[in-house]
Amino acid sequence: MSSPARSWRRRLAEPLTPRDVAQAGLCIGCGACGAGQGALAWDRFGQLKPADDWAGNAVPAFDQFCPFSPDARNEDAIAAERFPAPARRDERIGSFEAAYVGHVAEGEYRAGGSSGGMVSWVAAELLRRGLIDGVAHVVPVDPTRGDRFFRYRISRSVDEIGEGARSRYYPVELSAVFDEIRAVPGRYAIVGVPCFIKATNLLRDVDSVIAERVAFTLGLFCGHMKSARLVESFAWQLNAPMDQVRAVEYRQKNPDRPANWYTAHLTLADGSARWQDWMHLADGDWGAGFFQNNACNYCDDVMGETADIAFGDAWVEPYSSDGRGTNVVIVRSPEVQRIVAEAIGERRLTLDPVDADFIANTQAAGLRQRRDGLAYRLRFAPPRLPLRKRVAPGGEALPLRRKLIYRTRRRISSGSHRLFATARALHWPRLYLSWARLALGLYGALAYLRGPLGRLVGRLSDDDRNSW
């Protein structure tokens, strides 16, 4: 019997289409293919995918700019072109001029953001200096005026940029942004997760207008993409009628609590609010992979290796306990590094230089998932398109417990989509929530050695690590 990858290779004698990538379970929903074609639409799992007739047609140069195309250049090749003479190079975090930990010292950037305020500050500083005319970033929108809670927008003032502060774990896409950039001359910055920035850079290669007008890219460290169903799960668990939810916060900030204590917060139509810490939710463990896009199983970029500057959370002590929020920052562009260094000298930014080991340690779990975990997934569950990854299939020598963790994560991510869709269709939230609690219990036993099952796993395990 031929493998899925071989069958897709036979099909690839014809031009690759957006529908091919979506049907292979590898569409991340970035929207690069939808520019000039039509917006992406929701699928039954709450993910944005190419829709309508155009998705099955050959889009010019699509195989060159889709971030999950077998023929697209990988992150190393893109970075080598974008940053040809980096001061430093590390295989875990990419090419860079400097790396920092800290926060914005001026204004309300730190208080207004989920972390240290650096993303909004850099975007606003580029605008203040006249280096760009607009910033493409994610902002909240009124769900009664459409079918979503967040979308990309091009902001053209510092105040508008501030409206996009905070983390948004929600599907968004760039098709309208690229259409506006093509239609309105100017210089633009784009803020996005690694695969969105990769798509932007690949599109620059084949679209001269995008290449001329996209001046800067701001990357966000990424664990994985969630579906829109996470918001509905919040609503089920907080006893909030979904048709009454008007606003969502994934990380309600509280300076008196540790930064890594996430709180889900829903605002309802009558002005009331419901909230709960993620740790008390049935699907509140990020690492378990609930509602993860399948394409994330085959991504190897945690830290935006093709972006001019990339930002993450400082998930190490003492920073993770500081509820005011702290960023780690990787500056890859010499031009952006000059701006950051000048602001540090003026005490507008409170940033301390760090090395690659420090940065990697703040994202240790994500790197394990995208290195050892990816190698193992490429062996036991190869993608349905012949992707060319920087990580080779492997994992045979991994401890058994670690293999079980990677398999369980994958089962949880795929199972959560199906179980939630069934529960939603049947108007039976308990079906999904009961399954989610059981799945989380199993994951907790394997990953953290929790409960009686965890103690048994610990006694039998060939690896006594209590966190993954």
UniProtKB/TrEMBL annotation:
Residues forming coiled coils: none
Listed GO molecular functions? Answer: oxidoreductase activity, acting on CH or CH2 groups, with an iron-sulfur protein as acceptor
From what superkingdom does this record's organism come? Answer: Bacteria
Give residue ranges for domain Coenzyme F420 hydrogenase/dehydrogenase beta subunit C-terminal. Answer: 187-355
Domain (Coenzyme F420 hydrogenase/dehydrogenase beta subunit N-terminal) ranges = 100-177
Against Pfam families, the record matches this protein to:
FrhB_FdhB_C (PF04432), FrhB_FdhB_N (PF04422)
This chain's protein is named Coenzyme F420 hydrogenase
Give the species this sequence originates from.
Answer: Sphingomonas turrisvirgatae
